[in-house]
């Protein structure tokens, strides 16, 4: 299964490496005014603003304990809050992701960003989109990247990476299975028998012919090349004989 770094699934670490903090995480006057209306003052202003700007950059809600310090420091510099409010907020930042306050902010932030919660309907629509995408995309990584693009375009909150990976893997596996079934259904029984026999060790042998056919070439030397050409010729003879 592909890990997050091999895909376009956004992460804060990647955003920091790719973009300037000013480009993604700077709150403007409208952001601050909106936040103060929700929290009725300065208390928890930093927490709410960090959650807003990170969700805007990622397309999903991050775990606040995992937000890099440079992002928090950058956003704090744009807020005019009292020292007492900052001390309270620093403590709240440690626990907010597990608190009811965190859940209370989520609908407000979704409304602010025009972000839709990922539902079963979105999952079905995404699966249909990915089925079409398999006409040109042939790996799970490519499908994950296509899914991320579709979710951003539709303004749908990204599900957890593991969830998105399962969806894309299933679509990809189903596509490969349909291709295999289409090929197998057109092969004569005699050919299928030959192919199945390649997977069975011959009498008195430990390895099946298929294991020998899949033997990898040796080092990049002339003698190894000759050996592999001889091996390839022998593989053709095995298939023809069967």
Can you tell me about this structure?
By secondary structure, the chain is mostly helical. It is built from 13 helices and no strands. The longest helix is centred in the C-terminal third of the chain and has 24 residues, at 161-184. The model has no long low-confidence stretch (mean pLDDT 84). The protein is elongated. It has helices at residues 12-18, 21-25, 29-39, 45-58, 69-76, 83-95, 100-113, 120-133, 140-153, 161-184, 189-197, 209-213, 222-241. 65% of the residues lie in helices and 0% in strands. It folds into three domains: 4-113, no CATH class; 120-184; 189-241, no CATH class.
Quick description:
Helices cover 65% and strands 0% of the residues. It has 242 residues and is mainly α.
Itemize the secondary structure elements and their pairings.
Layout (H helix, E strand, L loop, with lengths): L11 H7 L2 H5 L3 H11 L5 H14 L10 H8 L6 H13 L4 H14 L6 H14 L6 H14 L7 H24 L4 H9 L11 H5 L8 H20 L1
Helix pairs in contact: 8-9, 8-10, 9-10
List keywords for this structure.
single chain, 242 residues, mainly alpha, 3 domains, 13 helices, 65% helix
Rg over C-alpha atoms, rounded to the nearest angstrom: 27 Å
Average pLDDT over all residues:
84
Query: Given the structure, what is the number of helices?
Result: 13
Strand content: under 5%
Domains (count): 3
Order of helices and strands: HHHHHHHHHHHHH
SS content category: mainly alpha
Measured between the Cα atoms of the first and last residue, the distance is 36 Å
- Per DSSP E runs of 2 or more residues, the count of β-strands stands at 0
Main sheet summary: none
Low-confidence parts:
none
Morphology call? elongated
Helix percentage: 55-70%
């Amino acid at each position: 299964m592909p890990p997050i770094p091999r895909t376009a699934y956004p992460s804060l670490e990647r955003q920091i490496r790719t973009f300037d903090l000013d480009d993604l995480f700077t709150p403007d006057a409208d952001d601050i005014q909106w936040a103060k209306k929700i929290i009725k003052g300065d208390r928890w202003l930093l927490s709410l603003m960090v959650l807003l700007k990170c969700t805007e950059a990622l397309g999903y809600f991050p775990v606040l304990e995992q937000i890099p310090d440079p992002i928090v420091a950058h956003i704090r510099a744009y807020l005019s809050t009292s020292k007492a409010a900052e001390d309270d907020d620093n403590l709240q930042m440690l626990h907010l992701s597990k608190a009811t306050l965190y859940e209370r902010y989520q609908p407000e932030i979704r409304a602010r960003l025009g972000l839709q919660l990922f539902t079963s309907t979105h999952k079905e629509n995404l699966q249909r989109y990915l089925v079409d995408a398999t006409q040109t995309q042939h790996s799970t990584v490519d499908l994950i990247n296509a899914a991320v693009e579709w979710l951003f375009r539709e303004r749908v909150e990204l599900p957890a990476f593991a969830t998105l990976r399962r969806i894309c893997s299933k679509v990809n596996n189903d596509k490969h299975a349909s291709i295999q079934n289409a090929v197998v259904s057109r092969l004569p029984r005699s050919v299928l028998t030959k192919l199945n026999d390649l997977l069975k060790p011959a009498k008195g042998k430990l390895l099946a012919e298929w294991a020998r056919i899949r033997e990898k070439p040796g080092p990049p030397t002339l003698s190894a090349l000759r050996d592999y050409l001889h091996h390839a010729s022998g593989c053709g003879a095995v298939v023809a004989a069967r």
